[in-house]
Amino acid sequence: MKLYPSATKTLLMHLLVGGVTSVLFFLLFGYPYSPFDPAKHILLLVIPLVIALIIALVAIRTTSYEINKKKIIHRRGRKVYEYKFSMIVYVDDEYTRKHKILRFYTNKGDEIFLPLDKNMLLYEIVQKNVGYLWSFEQLKEKFPKASK
């Protein structure tokens, strides 16, 4: 089964980064210019936003999840990440429901964040296919840096 993360969440995240970058560009490079030359100010504000929009559209088109019976294959651009269901030891249900981002820990202590699809099918499939989940206390005992 192939799933795609929520396009609106991806777009908003990239545009937020683009907006912050745009303001930083303006403060670094646009401030010394004369206020009577608005073309340079507009360019310094718009160019980072346009670049962020292009990156967001590419990210939306190239990010997907393939789900097998044994693993999740996460494709992000040219990179491919594999998460076997047997490696997942803790799923943070509160965080996942609140932020619509699947947050889980692997048996190596890695914290993974995966943006969910619109219908939260990825979350349901992970809940169904992961066998034994640890409690947060067990996770904290094994990996002290884990946070809730």
Structural notes for this entry:
This protein has five helices and seven strands. A hairpin with a 3-residue loop joins strand 2 (63-67) and strand 3. The two termini are 30 Å apart. The model has no long low-confidence stretch (mean pLDDT 88). By secondary structure, it is an alpha+beta fold. The strands form two sheets. The protein has a four-stranded antiparallel β-sheet. It has a three-stranded antiparallel β-sheet with strand order 5-6-7. It has two domains: 2-62, no CATH class; 85-142, no CATH class. The protein is elongated and about 65 Å long. The protein is 49% helix and 23% strand. The protein has helices spanning 7-30, 38-62, 93-99, 121-129, 136-142; strands spanning 2-3, 63-67, 71-76, 79-84, 88-91, 101-106, 111-115. Helix 1 (7-30) packs antiparallel against helix 2.
Note the main attributes of this structure:
148 residues, alpha+beta, 4-stranded antiparallel sheet, 5 helices, elongated
Mean pLDDT, all residues: 88
Helix content: 40-55%
Order of helices and strands: EHHEEEEHEEHH
Derived from helix and strand composition plus strand pairing, the structural class reads alpha+beta
How many domains make up the 3D coordinates? 2
Name the beta content range: 15-25%
- N- to C-terminal distance: 30 Å
Identify the overall geometry.
elongated
